[in-house]
Amino acid sequence: MRVSFRPGLAAFVAGLLIVANLAAQAAPAGAPSPTAATAAPAPTPGSPPEALPAEPPVAPPSGPTRTRVLTLNEMGVYGPLPLRGPDPNGAMSVDVRTDEVVTAARLKLDYAYSPALIFPLSHLRVLLNGELITTLPLDKDGAGKQVSRTIDLDPRLFVDYNRITVQMIAHYTTDQCEDPYHSSLWTDISPTTSLALTTASVALPDSLALLPAPFFDRHDNRLLNLAFVLPQSSQPQTLRAAGIVASWFGSLADYRHARFTAATALPADSHAVVLAMPGATPPGVTLPEIKGPTVAVIDNPAAPPQSGRKLLVVAGRDQKELETAAEALVLGRAGMAGNLATIKSVDLGPRRRPYDAPNWAPVDRPIQFRELVTDPQQLQVSGYSPPLIRVNLRVPPDLYAWAHQSVPLDVHYRYTAPSTYNDSILNVSINDQLVRSERLRPQRASSDRFRLNVPLLSSIEANSVDQVGVPVFRVAANNQFQFLFHMDSQKTGLCASSATDVARASVDPDSSIDFSGFAHYTALPNLSYFATSGYPFSRMADLSDTAVVMPDAPNPQDLATMLTLLGRIGEWTGLPALRVDVVPAAKVAAAGGRDLLVIGTGSAGDLLAKWGKSLPMLIGHGGTELSLRDQRNGGAWTGLLADSRDNPTTPLGRASIAPSGPLAALIGFESPLESGRSVVAVVATSSAQLGGVLDALQDDSRVSQVRGDLAVFRDRQIDSLRVGDLYLVGDLPWYARFWVFISHYPALLAIAGILAGLVVALTVFWALSRLAVRRTGN
C-alpha cells in the first residue's frame, strides 16, 4: 500500500517548529525539570507527605481540572495485593495522558497486617517512581483489622508511566536467625484501595505528527469514547469512510475497547472526528478551501477556551475524496506533518489473505513466544514467589481438530537452580486451568526443556474426550498461557543461612506452540464466534468479504452501532476495515456475495421481515415472533458439529409476543442471498435499545453468555438459544469428513473395522493362492 501527500512548504516548516517546541508548550510555566524533581532530597522515614522540602511554586496549567478515582483493579492489581516474607513489595501502575498534567494526587491505602509482629520495628514504605513518599508505622492498635490511611503524593513526581510501590518491613522476633518465610510476616492491601488523581488539560499544538493523540492516548487505559460528527443524510460512501476511521481507532484501543457516538453537531467538551465536504460542514467549523482529500487537526470551537479539545477533520470535495482521505489517515499518518495534509493518492495494496489478521497467531506453522509478546522481558521474573508470566494468544475460532486431540506446546525455560532437590516447581496453566507441574531440578549441564500436549476441545467437537484428565479450553476464545515459578527456600536449618532475593526465572522466547494441521471448518451460526472474535467477518482482516447493511435513513443510534461494531472488529483483527462495504437496505442485493452485518432497525428491520419467518426471531414495532425448534431434527452431520451447550429442548413451533418493555437481540443465520454466507443482525424494539447490545459485547464478564444463533438482551440479562438451522463453512478433506462422521458411531466403526479386516484377509489369501499356483503349476 502506498500513500502520497502534498502538505506544502509552509505547513512542513510549521510542523517542524511545532514538534521542536512541543515540550515547552506542554509543560506548565515554572515547572521543575525531571532531573530537578528526581534530585530533590527524600523525606526522612516516618515523616508525613507535607514534610517534603519546599520547591518553587508550579504555575497551574490554564486548562480546567478533572478528578477521577482509580480503583486497585484499574491500577493493574487483580484482587487484594499480598505482601509476604522475602518478597514484600507490591506495585500499582498509573498512567497520565499526554494532554494532561497531574496537579494533585491522594492515595487512600486500605490494608491489614499481622498481629504477631514486633511493632516498633515494623512499618510500610510508600514510594512513587522510586522516590520515598512516606512510611506508615504498623502499631499494635490496628493489628489484625482493616486500617485506612490517606497519603498525599507529590504531583511533581508523576511522569507518563508511574509506579506506586508499597514495601513491607516487618519482623516477628529480635533473633538474628529470623526466618523471612515465617507465616506471621504478612500484610494485605485491600481492593478498596484507591487513588484520587486530579489533572489539568494541556493544550497540544494542532499537529498531525501527534496522531493518534489526543483522540486516542496509549497512556489512557480507560474505555475510548470518541464522537463522530457526520453530515446530515450521510450517504453510504460517507458512512464507509467513517467506518474505516472507527475501525482504526478500535484497533488502537485493543483491550481498552472503544465506544463511538454519532451526531451532526460538535460535542461541547470532548475530542471528535469530523467528516466534512463543501456545504456539509458542522456549524462553527471554519476550514480553508478544500482542494482534494484532506486531513487536518484543529481546535474544537464548541469546547471551552483553553480546554485543549481537538477535531480530527477528514474532508473531501465529494464522497470519493472523503473515502480517500479516510484511507490515507489510517495508512499514512506517519508521513503527515503540520496541521493539514492534502492527499495526492492512495494505493490499498493487495487484498488480505484469509486468517492473516495481525492479532491472530498464524496457524500454518509453529509460532514462537517472541511473536506473542511486545518485549522479551515480559517472559522473565525474579524472587522466590514471582508473579505469573502471561502470554496471550488469539487464534481463529473455526479451528477443527479432526485428527488431533491436543495442541503441541514446546516450552524452554531457565531458572536459578537449587543446590539440592526441593519443592521448587513450575506450573503451566491455560486460561487458569492447570496443565502440568514440573519440578525444578538442581543445576545440569544444559537448560531445561520439556514438551507437552495441551488437550484441545474444538468448539465444534462436542464429544471429544480428555484422555489425560486435564482441563480443556476453547481455542476460539482469547487464550492466555500462564507460567508460575515457585522457588523454594534452600535453608536447611533455622540459622543455617539467610534467604537472599537472587532467584531468577524465565520462559525462553524460542518456546513455541503449533496449530498447523488443524482445519478451518465449523458449523454456523454461532454468535459466540462473533462476540469473542468478530467471526465470520474477521476472517478477512480488511473486511473485504463484509458488507454492513444500514437502514435507508439511519438515525444517530444506528450510526453509533455501526461505528462501534466496526471498531470492535478492528480490535479483534488489529487492522482497519479498508475494504468493508456499506449498503442501504434497499440495495442489499448488490452485496449478495458477502457476509452481512445488519443494523436491523427501520427499513433494515423490514428487510429481515421480508426474508421470512424462517429466521430465529423477528422484532418489529408491533410485536416479536420467536421460533421454537428441536435442533435434534437438523441432521446427523450438523448435530455432530454443534456446540453441546446449544442443544435445545424446546419443541417445534413459533410464538408471537407483544412485549411492553425494551428488547434487543443478536441473530445469526445463513444469508438468503447466497449459500454459505452468514448474516449477523443487531435488532431492537427501538434504536435506543441497541446500546444494550454494545454494552454486553464490551463487558468481558458477560460476553461469554452470548452463543447459539439467538441472544436476547433484556436489561442486564442475556438469554442465548439455538433455534435455527445449522450450516457448514470451511474446508475439510473428504477422508477427514468420513473419519469424523464414522468415529461418532461405534457400531459403524466396528463394522468398518471388520470389513477392512476381511478385505485384508481376502487380499492376503488371494496373493498366497496365486503364489501357490505359480510354485506348483496347478
From TrEMBL:
Pathway of action: Glycan metabolism; bacterial cellulose biosynthesis
Region (Disordered): 30-66
Role summary: Binds the cellulose synthase activator, bis-(3'-5') cyclic diguanylic acid (c-di-GMP).
Family annotation (NCBIfam families): PRK11114.1-1
InterPro entries in the cross-refs: Cell_synth_B, Cell_synthase_bac
Membrane topology classification: Single-pass membrane protein
Sequence ranges of Pro residues compositional bias: 42-63
Compartments where located: Cell inner membrane
Record field: compositional bias (Low complexity): 30-41
GO cellular component: plasma membrane
A GO BP entry: cellulose biosynthetic process
Record carries keyword Acetylation: no
Xref: PANTHER family: CYCLIC DI-GMP-BINDING PROTEIN
Keywords for the protein's UniProt record, in alphabetical order: c-di-GMP, Cell inner membrane, Cell membrane, Cellulose biosynthesis, Membrane, Signal, Transmembrane, Transmembrane helix
Keyword Glycosyltransferase applies: no
Signal peptide: 1-26
Family indicated by similarity: Belongs to the AcsB/BcsB family.
Origin: domain of life: Bacteria
Regions that span the bilayer: 747-768
Binding partners and assembly: Tightly associated with the cellulose synthase catalytic subunit.
Pfam families, A to Z: BcsB
This protein's name: Cyclic di-GMP-binding protein
